[in-house]
Specification:
Blueprint (H helix, E strand, L loop, with lengths): L1 H5 L7 E9 L6 E8 L5 E8 L5 E6 L2 E7 L4 E7 L14 E6 L2 E7 L1 E2 L2 H5 L3
Antiparallel strand pairs: 1-2, 1-8, 1-9, 2-3, 3-6, 4-5, 4-7, 7-8
Length: about 120
């Protein structure tokens, strides 16, 4: 319970986000959100639409992080390092990409989340 409450305090948890936009003519769009707790656990999620095919890949700073399932052009995945998902440590300005067949289709640069965005319901 205490850990859940700590997540609401912006000075205790690093929170980053980016909008994902189409690259090289791709028209999809999406978002990536990330939180790193003071204890070192990482939670992150990606949502996208307009992604063709059945699978895509999440890359951060050019490194493969996870495979993503596509369902009717949509991607939605959540990751938590406390349950065995890859623990990634990110910083403002890092590049997040959704790739298919080796090429980037969506991309964004991470920025600090503003307090009003943290408090607004998702």
């Amino acid at each position: 319970m205490l850990d859940a409450l700590k997540g609401f305090l912006p000075w205790l948890t690093l929170r980053l986000e980016t909008k994902l936009t189409g690259v090289a003519g791709f028209t999809g769009a999406g978002a990536f959100r990330y939180a790193l707790s003071p204890a070192g656990s990482a939670n992150y999620e990606v949502e996208a639409k307009g992604v063709a095919g059945r699978t895509a890949e999440l890359f951060i700073l050019g490194e493969f992080v996870a495979a993503l399932d596509c369902d009717d052009g949509r991607v939605s995945a959540k990751f938590d390092s406390r349950i065995g998902d890859p623990a990634v440590w990110l910083a403002e300005g890092d590049i997040v990409e959704i790739r298919q067949n080796g090429g980037s289709v969506l991309r964004g640069n991470l920025k600090m989340r503003r307090l009003r965005n943290i408090l607004r319901p998702a």
